[in-house]
Amino acid sequence: MVTAKVWVLKKHFEGFPKPSDFDLKKIELPNLKDGELLLESVFLSVDPYMRPYSRRDMKEGDIMIGTQVARIVESKNPAFTVGAFVVARSGWRTHFISDGKDLQLLPSNWPESLPKSLALGTVGMPGLTAYFGLLEVCKMKPGETVLVNAAAGAVGSVVGQLAKIGGCKVVGCAGSGEKVAYLKKIGFDEAFNYKTVTSLDEALRKASPDGYDCFFDNVGGEFASIAINHMKKYGRIAVCGAISQYNDSVPQQGPYVQVPMIFKELQMEGFIVTRWSNRREEGLNALLKWVVEGKVKYHEQVTEGFENMPMAFIGMLKGENLGKAIVKV
Ligand SMILES: NC(=O)C1=CN([C@@H]2O[C@H](COP(=O)(O)OP(=O)(O)OC[C@H]3O[C@@H](n4cnc5c(N)ncnc54)[C@H](OP(=O)(O)O)[C@@H]3O)[C@@H](O)[C@H]2O)C=CC1
Ligand SMILES: CCCCC/C=C\CC(=O)/C=C/C=C/C=C/[C@@H](O)CCCC(=O)O
């Protein structure tokens, strides 16, 4: 019998999650039945969506939702061999049993030298979010100017680099000097620390006096309300996330955006990356190619130890990560 460790949601979050909202439990796993396989998590992802989704999808006592890169340690399923690596959506667990239907093998051309954890970030769901959000929602064109916030994160850092590959001018913002330096290092044309600028309005104008054709919004809230006034006519806004609101006990009431929407004839579209699940391979192959060619750089914020998952999650929500936040078991 294998003993799995799991993190459960002990108490629904009120404001920022606290370590006391989680409980670490042990589960004895049964022996495998025909067609099943036993897997051990190697890397686990902590993502912003877990905060709002926990309230929507979970009840207290449930195992925290999430994805992992896992290794097959025992198999009674001929489609999966021991030692293979997969991406799974089995939540915050060290070990789990699967019938194989919910597993996605890492691309067969995954280079040995490339960290498999990238399957949770740049060459995974966040990377796909950047890829499809830019191509299908922003519909960026060469020569345009793209704005992205939370730009040093898992999604934002890929947005900026893909926009550069697409021939755009790219402006990004993040919450520390270290992150701003990273943005410039990976090719952003302009980058600023939204926490230290005296005026966000001025910073946006200085970074691109002519305004922005595309705004890839990861943050929402006040930033979005100010940024919308800097959009060019016929600009496009991809509403990817609203992380400035996820931990609010009382929803913010942002100022109205109808006036700039009308006068600038803007398009604003929310999206969830699973919309393009049927094009997942296309996106992953493109992202993997750009990473291997060195055109897309990556950075991972690695927290060691399964017991540190809550702190990694809370740290990411507080902006302590540069690049994709992951936990190495
Ligand atoms: N629509 C979709 O399908 C998907 C949407 N998303 C969304 O994309 C966004 C980024 O996700 P992801 O790249 O995984 O996360 P990141 O790796 O960017 O980590 C979150 C970052 O958000 C920033 N942040 C946190 N709180 C605030 C705040 N109050 N105001 C401004 N910035 C804040 C912090 O960076 P900083 O230093 O810049 O403050 C923090 O590091 C999230 O909103 C997420 O929900 C992600 C995946 C799929
Ligand atoms: C205050 C309300 C916020 C609404 C928007 C919330 C989150 C946006 C976001 O981050 C969406 C992320 C979607 C990620 C999808 C991941 C899938 O690969 C797996 C998700 C978990 C599951 O469905 O099993």
TrEMBL record:
GO terms for biological process: prostaglandin metabolic process. It comes from the Eukaryota. GO terms for cellular component: cytoplasm. Keywords: Acetylation, Cytoplasm, Fatty acid metabolism, Hydroxylation, Lipid metabolism, NADP, Oxidoreductase, Phosphoprotein, Prostaglandin metabolism. It is an enzyme of class 1 (oxidoreductase). InterPro entries: ADH-like_C (IPR013149), ADH_N_2 (IPR041694), ER (IPR020843), GroES-like_sf (IPR011032), MDR_fam (IPR045010), NAD(P)-bd_dom_sf (IPR036291), PTGR1 (IPR014190). Residues 15-327 form the Enoyl reductase (ER) domain. One of its GO terms (molecular function) is 15-oxoprostaglandin 13-reductase [NAD(P)+] activity. Monomer or homodimer. This is Prostaglandin reductase 1. It comes from Nipponia nippon (Crested ibis).
